[in-house]
Amino acid sequence: MSSTSTSTSGNSSAKAKLPTSLVNTLSTHAGPINAITFSSLGGTYILTGSSDRQIHLSRSEPNTTTSSSVPPTTNKPIQKYAAHGYAVLDIAVAQDNQTFASAGGDRAVFLWDVQNAEGTLRRFGNNTSQGHTSRINCVAFAGQGDSVLASGSDDTSVRLWDVKSRDAKPLMVLEEAKDGISSIVVPGNGHEIVAGSVDGRVRSYDVRMGRVTVDVMPGSVTSLDVSRDARALLVGCLDGRLRMMDRADGTCLRGFPPEGNTEEYKNDSLRLKSCFAVNESLVLSGSENDGSVRAWDVLSGKHVGNVEVNPSGKVVSVVKWREGSLAQARQGLWAGGGLEGVVNIYAAA
Q1: Where are the WD repeats (predicted)?
Q2: DSSP 72
Q3: Nearest to 181 by CA among 150, 146, 218, 208
Q4: Rounded-to-integer distance, Cα 253 and Cα 245, Å
């Protein structure tokens, strides 16, 4: 593993602390949590997708404070979206917060109006012979003004859909992968698509230039997150480690846990969605061997804390960070959910 002195946009090591104060518990679903995403522009709201085939919209934090020392529990969402016939596996929110996309076992990408839960605006891929032929694991907005949706499937393809057009056919089909597509991220410029595959490859597509760059990983790729400046990529693999990669030259900037570390972290069979957190100074991930979320410092690679999200020991398969804003009193929030079927949301004490 190559060492580096490259700085990141994160805080210094001394300030990298894992927020551990539970501020809300969402117990609205009747099945495992597979997808979590915060609304854009401050993240007041949170969307959760479950194996119960529903998507729920809730507040990230209760809008009323309580004097009780027991954190509140949200039992009823603000809105339910229930058009899926199979498990919901991923959710993406448009930058204007007016629409969001979801995908799962239905083999189609659903586009929703946030305000209207009665039905979908569009369904991409269900009325064309050029749609996905297997479950869709991931979806992301791309292009100028979120004009494109990218979806990745077990059928080994990434498909791009035109949100503005009524054409049912995909704009483009990317078929370089030799196994299922597990995750997709779109760097800030909007014209690149980065896809992680079970074949152990990360492929970066520059759609405007018609070029693909391939990085070989030591295990099946299960998770991707990209830094705000688009220079670093967090890659989770089934060899039991996460790696922060330099997107310019493909070198590994840091590994989590560090090589030779005996820390009890396990990921060799499940799809665990990991993320950057706290101004990109931390990396967060669940682990297959317990119900905790672990945090590592981006600069040093050191383990800096655990939070027991599920005391029952059921795996936390999805973690998501929401950065704070000037309008919010909090620095930021993170949410974790998985097999327990609940979502816990944490902030700094």
Answers
A1: 81-122, 129-171
A2: P
A3: 150
A4: 5
Residue 243 domain-assigned (yes or no): yes
Q: What residues contact residue 263 under an 8 Å CB cut-off, 6+ apart?
A: 257, 294, 303
Q: What are the pLDDT digits (tens) for 134-164?
A: 999 999 999 999 999 999 999 999 999 999 9
Domain assignment present for 249:
yes
State if pTM tops 0.70: yes
Residue 150 tokens read as: 């990218």
- Residue 296 vs residues 128, 222, 257, 330: alpha-carbon distances, Å: 45, 18, 7, 21
pLDDT tens for each residue of 234-265: 999 999 999 999 999 999 999 999 887 767 89
Which domain covers residue 233, as residue numbers? Answer: 36-58+77-320
Say if 307 falls within a structural domain: yes
Q: Which of 209, 128, 138, 230 is nearest to 177 (CA)?
A: 138
CATH number of the domain that residue 258 is part of: 2.130.10.10
For 324, counting Cβ atoms within 10 Å of its Cβ (0-12 exposed, 13-18 middle, 19+ buried), the class is middle
Please tell me the total count of domains within the chain: 1
Phi, psi of 15 (to 5 degrees): -95, -5
* Opening angle at CA 181, ends 89 and 167, nearest 5: 80
Structural domain contains residue 348: no
Q: Could you tell me which residues are beta bridge partners of residue 206?
A: 192, 211
Which ranges of 110-186 would DSSP assign to H, the alpha helix? none
343 is written with which tokens?
């979502």
